[in-house]
Write a structure and sequence with these properties.
436 residues, alpha+beta, FAD/NAD(P)-binding domain, Elongation Factor Tu (Ef-tu), domain 3, 2 domains, 6-stranded mixed sheet, 17 strands, 17% strand, globular, binds flavin-adenine dinucleotide
């Protein structure tokens, strides 16, 4: 019995390939070129919708490590990227036409994969992997929304930056919750004086912003306005909004600061801190320049940049289990960006995991994800851990179990060893024999 994969983007191609290389059969449904999305331009599988850079190749950079993990798991996306790369310094940059054309040819000629063109407007019977991406067509999105309870499928993200807790200057910050005398409060507060606020404000409203795509040119929800748009409403708007200091007193002088940026723990270990209410459309280098004007963040290391996108994704902690199945219907797997990860390679990784998990489920075997010391395990743990403020996540070292900057090399070695061990464990099962 074939496994249906919906969406022939990065995740869907990877999922179909992993099913086929495990000896299974996949039907890959891609709506393009019959029906297209506002961002895609061709009918090719695995088309890159924007940049042709797959980011760093350096193993000591989380993006580089993620690609190496994919390479070791025989990812068709990374192999094809390696084969169609063009010079790009330390980044893996591809010739986008050759990349997508080569992928399409290989997938269309794979005896284990049948490619069917046309929009899927409902979810077929049997085991299904949904990899329809951030621009999932409306009719399919309605179906997914119905299955996951409409409130758990989102159409825009509003992402605040995350910084490495070890990079915050604790001499210039203090723990406290509003109106609480407890100095071990839930928030790490970064105070600003009136002069510091004025300088920060001027930099914020004049910073360069990302261009909006036509289909993103829509009014923002009032509750998740970009911080720079909020600032344009008046010089004091932020000081009365996300930067309001009420109920907070700086223990260094006992006074209320002029303004405060609050940092909230993003994960249980507290090594990742979220700038509360600072979703932004500033360009990435501008975010770093402007936010480092906050005294406690002068040396901040950014693990995730802020953004606001058109993006279809589920409330993963409520909807998904660690096998990437919908909790309410375990024959349906999600893959790619729709799971709540962010980025080309993260989407690919969630395609690879969902493909292996789906073929295992079809064979009545249990899928155990890689440990959280690996990129896949760390991202799956993020997706499936309770989180009232869930927003899509890119790979970063803050997600790794026991990560510390000074032991980065050890984390990298452990990740690569653990992924090799995991690969051996899944391929040792006699029912999951690669046909290559
Ligand atoms: C405009 C835009 C720009 C982005 N730029 C970047 C970037 O520069 N770098 C980066 O790392 N990430 C970027 N991303 C984020 C993300 O990494 C990519 O969108 C990535 O392609 C996601 O992979 P995916 O396989 O989940 O979805 P996609 O690659 O979008 O693949 C989904 C596929 O499903 C098909 N489909 C949708 N609905 C149906 C249906 N009903 N039936 C059949 N087929 C269907 C689509 O045609 C598409 O081919 C961007 C996202 C967007 C929206």
């Amino acid at each position: 019995m074939e496994i249906a994969v919906i969406g022939g983007g990065l995740a869907g191609v990877e999922a179909a390939y992993q099913i086929a290389r495990s000896g299974g059969a996949a039907i890959l449904h891609e709506m393009r070129p019959t029906v297209t999305t506002p961002a895609h331009k061709s009918g090719l599988l695995g088309e890159l919708v924007c940049s042709n850079s797959l980011k760093s190749m350096d193993l000591l950079n989380a993006h580089g490590l993620l690609k190496e993990e994919l390479r070791r798991l025989d990812s068709i996306i990374v192999r094809t990227a390696d084969e169609t790369s063009i010079p790009g310094g330390k980044a893996l940059v591809v010739d986008r036409e050759r990349f997508a054309a080569k992928l399409t040819e290989e997938i269309e000629n794979d005896p284990g994969i049948q490619v069917v063109r046309g929009e899927m407007t409902s979810i077929p019977d049997g085991v299904v992997v949904i990899a329809s991406g951030p621009l999932t067509s409306d009719s399919l999105a309605n179906e997914i929304g119905r299955l996951t309870n409409a409130g758990n499928l989102f159409f825009y993200d509003a992402i605040s930056p995350i910084v490495d807790a070890q990079s915050v200057d604790l001499e210039s910050a203090f723990y406290a919750s509003r109106y609480s005398k407890d100095e071990t409060g839930d928030y790490l507060n970064c105070p600003l004086t009136g002069e510091e606020y004025d300088r920060f404000y001027d930099a914020l409203i004049s910073a360069e912003r990302m261009e909006l795509k036509d289909f993103e040119n829509t009014s923002y929800f009032e509750g998740c306005l970009p911080v720079e748009v909020l600032a344009e409403r008046g010089k004091k708007t932020l000081a009365f909004g996300p930067m309001k200091p009420v109920g907070l007193f700086d223990p260094r002088d006992g006074k209320r600061p002029y303004a405060v940026v609050q940092l909230r723990k993003e994960n249980a270990s507290g090594n990742m801190l979220n700038l509360v209410g600072f979703q932004t459309k500033m360009k990435y280098p501008e975010q770093e320049r402007v936010f480092r004007m906050i005294p406690a963040l002068r040396n901040a290391v950014f693990l995730r940049h802020g953004s606001i996108h058109r993006n279809t994704y589920v409330n993963a902690p409520l909807c998904l289990n660690e096998r990437l199945q919908l909790k309410v219907n375990e024959r349906v797997f999600l893959a790619g960006q729709i799971t709540g990860v962010e980025g080309y390679m993260e989407a690919t990784l969630m395609g690879l995991m969902a493909g292996i998990s789906a073929i295992k489920a079809q064979r009545g075997d249990v899928f155990i994800p890689p440990p959280p010391s690996t990129c896949a395990g760390a991202l799956i743990r993020y997706l499936t851990t309770e989180n009232k403020h869930f927003q899509p996540m890119n790979i970063n070292f803050g997600l790794f179990e026991g990560y510390a900057k000074k032991t980065k090399e050890i984390s990298v070695e452990r990740c690569l060893q653990d992924i090799e061990d995991w690969k051996t464990s899944i391929h040792n099962k006699k029912h999951l024999t690669p046909h290559s």
